[in-house]
Amino acid sequence: MSAAPQGGRRAAVLAQQIRESAQALATLEREFPDNPAAMDYFYKLFHRVYCEGGRAQPEGTLVGTTCVQVPDEIVRAAGGIPVRLCSGSHAFDQAGADFMPAKSCSLVKATLGLLQDERPAWLDTLDRVVNLTTCDQKKKAGQMMEELGCQVHHLEFPPSKESEHARAFWRASVRDFVRAAERMTGGRVTRASLRESILAVSRAQAAYRRLQRLRAESPALLLGKDAFLVTNAYFFDDLERWTAAVDALVAELEARREAGISAALRRAPRILFTGSPPVFPNLKIPVLVEQAGGVIVADETCSANRMLNDAVSVDEWNLYDMVDAVADRYLKPCTCPIFTSNGDRLRRLLDLARTHAVDGVVYQAFAGCQVYEMEHHSVSRALAEAGLPCLYVETDYSPDDVGQLSTRVEAFIESLRSRRRRRQ
Amino acid sequence: MKRLRAFVNGADIQRFRTWFQLFAFVLLVYGGYLYIDLGNSLPVFACGFNDAGRGGVCYLLPLQHQTHIPWESLFSWRALGLVFGFLTFFAWLLVLNKAWCGYVCPLGTIQDWMTALRRRLRLRYSVYSLESFTRLKKVKYILLVLLILIPFAIGNPVEGLPHVPEDMATPFCTICPARMVIPAFTGDFSQWTLDFSTRTALVMTSLGMAILGIFFVGAFVNKRFFCFFCPMSALQALFSNIALLKLRKDGGKCTRCGDCYRVCDMQIKAIADDVERKTLIEDDCMMCLKCVAACPEEGCLKATFMGIPVYEATEEGFFRRLQRRGGE
């Protein structure tokens, strides 16, 4: 390919990405009444970064990560700024189709599409990527990122997590990663810097948990589309600022609760969202669910709950134990379907359903994401045993199926409503 | 009540434990000077060889004496000593369960002090591999059986079998590091000797000295090194399920994040991985409750006394402790 037409094509992709982001934001912001004022921070943040070519992070070495299981604490301790590259853009998804077979996962394709040629402004200085060897598609994408000119560290992740071998393997992998992160950033991971980053991330997690706790209340205080936007912002926002913004949201929601203001009706079916991660601007399914009158009160996805729920626990605050503690946090509680067994994911779903008084589950699987497709069977069986209806949606980033999906989602929400009426 | 509970659950159990251990240590190692005597059936290594300072005596010492009786006497008044000794031991155990190990045992406390020293020196601890861990944890039961059988064999020689020498009357005490370590705290180093009087005594005291050396090295690099082998822990474990203090787990709330397992000094993996059992006191558990403090899931792990929760995992408590300990 010659430079000129490619450049033209790239400009079109970037323009399309801006258009779809603006559209998605308009839907999230304007099609739902009475959004919390504290959400403005997030709407504006996305607008600035995705539509206006602004940056969210402080100055520093950006380190791209392609999976929620890459230990952010280590990157931060080394002086880097982790940004998660998992993209939800249909424009990038189409651009990434140059690399991957047609039937592969939209998210992986979009990530490759994002890294191709000219980057969006907020990533223009990025050339270092940490790619985790999780599912096959992400694993193979690592090499393609190298071909795109990125300096890639292939962080090796074990295929199962139960055994002590897996734990030891992963710990060794993370210890290597400490050195790799230092090489990437030119900084050093010290006792003080790692302690600082563990504490900063844990403050963000504590804020997230406070928010999540409020979502357990009925009637719902926050719509899922906003909750996903909040956690999506964690991908790239400045950590302290994000934490402060979540705290502000929590404070506002608490005040709203006292004032008796809720985000959804008391009888709105409460939904637990699981499966392939909703990543901005692809909040297609969450938006459909809430346009149909449901409310997403909890999720088990790697763009939200799985990213922020589990905490590091350090026994001895010395470097040796902190690094191992960070490693353990990124392996043991992980409910990713790439692992050999999914008992933990099932229990997590049932626990979230119980604590959040959920009426039904929406399971999104990106076409081509084999592991989520494969786990559909065991998950739906476990949910059926617990008496929880589940809607399984296979989709991708293309807007073509919205019409068909909205009919299915509406029917599902309606069935949950009548089920509730029957029970009352 | 609600506020009190929130205060307790948000508290730093490790700090509380450090002070409690110090108090218990003074009581059991120096209590004798204050005429304190908690009897001789304590479920901890309050060493009886610490003549001057002891505030009570480890049950294993009288147990070895009491089982040193002929078979016929087992059915006579003489066996009453054995029965009452055990009942007293059992009564103590019933209250605190294995928390005796984590909160009271002076030898355990000394090991924790050595761990604290290592941590200050910023030296990494070592751990057993899962395989050796599984193998090693049997040692304590073997020691328990031997410390009962050997004295009994002295009193009941069997025709044809070699005679067990009288020097083996308290076989475990001779090799127990507490016999040398605890009296040393009152300035009594008389146990740090080899006994040349008979060949058996020489072998046993040499073994004891060797184990003392291993104890110091082991406890410095491995958290609670000796406790894996402790026959008292084995004896307690036999009855720990009926004691009043319990460690309970709600498997449904567990994410198996392993935070509890990774802070466990005794490397108990089941605390993280077992989501079926409601009461989770493994034989090596010393009920230090570090696991409860390290659990971020609301109400997943808790210590209960007669069914009443006394210390419970809470989200808020977890993050408060993390910030506080990390900030130090």
Keywords for this structure?
heterodimer, A: about 425 residues, alpha/beta, 4-stranded parallel beta sheet, globular, B: about 325 residues, mainly alpha, Alpha-Beta Plaits, 3 strands
What does this structure look like?
The complex is a heterodimer of chains A (424) and B (328). By secondary structure, chain A is of the alpha/beta class. Chain A has one domain (3-423). Chain A has 16 helices and 8 strands. In chain A, helix 7 crosses helix 13 (319-331) and helix 8 (191-215) packs parallel to helix 13. By secondary structure, chain B is mainly alpha-helical. Chain B has 2 domains: 13-236, no CATH class; 242-327, Alpha-Beta Plaits. Chain B is 51% helix and 5% strand. Chain A binds chain B through residues 162, 164, 191, 195, 198-199, 202-203, 205-206, 209, 213, 309-321, 324-325, 328-329, 332-333, 344, 347-348, 350-351, 354, and chain B through 119, 122, 124-125, 129-130, 251-260, 262-263, 269, 272-273, 275, 290, 294, 296, 315, 318-319, 322-323, 325-328.
Q: How many helical stretches of chain B?
A: 16
Helical proportion of chain B? 40-55%
> What is the average per-residue confidence, as pLDDT of chain B, rounded to a whole number?
93
Uncertain runs of chain B: none
> Span from first to last CA of chain B?
30 Å
Q: Compute the number of strand runs of chain A.
A: 8
- Element string of chain B (H = helix, E = strand): HHHHHHHHHHHHEHHHEEH
Strand order of the largest sheet of chain A: 2-1-3-4
Number of strands of chain B: 3
- Estimated radius of gyration of chain A: 21 Å
Chain oligomer state: heterodimer
Strand proportion of chain B, as a percent range, falls in: under 5%
Structural class of chain A: alpha/beta
Mean pLDDT of chain A: 94
Q: Helix and strand layout, with pairings?
A:
The complex is a heterodimer of chains A (424) and B (328).
Chain A: H1 3-30, H2 40-51, E1 61-65, H3 72-77, E2 80-84, H4 90-96, H5 106-115, E3 128-132, H6 136-147, E4 151-155, H7 164-185, H8 191-215, H9 224-233, H10 239-258, E5 270-275, H11 284-291, E6 295-300, H12 305-308, H13 319-331, H14 343-355, E7 360-366, H15 370-385, E8 390-395, H16 402-423
Parallel strand pairs in A: 1-2, 1-3, 3-4, 5-6, 5-7, 7-8
Helix pairs in contact in A: 1-2, 1-4, 4-5, 5-6, 7-13, 8-10, 8-13, 11-16, 14-15
Chain B: H1 2-9, H2 13-30, H3 60-66, H4 79-96, H5 99-104, H6 106-120, H7 130-136, H8 139-155, H9 171-175, H10 178-184, H11 199-221, H12 231-239, E1 245-249, H13 259-263, H14 270-273, H15 290-293, E2 301-305, E3 308-312, H16 315-327
Antiparallel strand pairs in B: 1-2, 2-3
Helix pairs in contact in B: 3-8, 6-11, 8-12
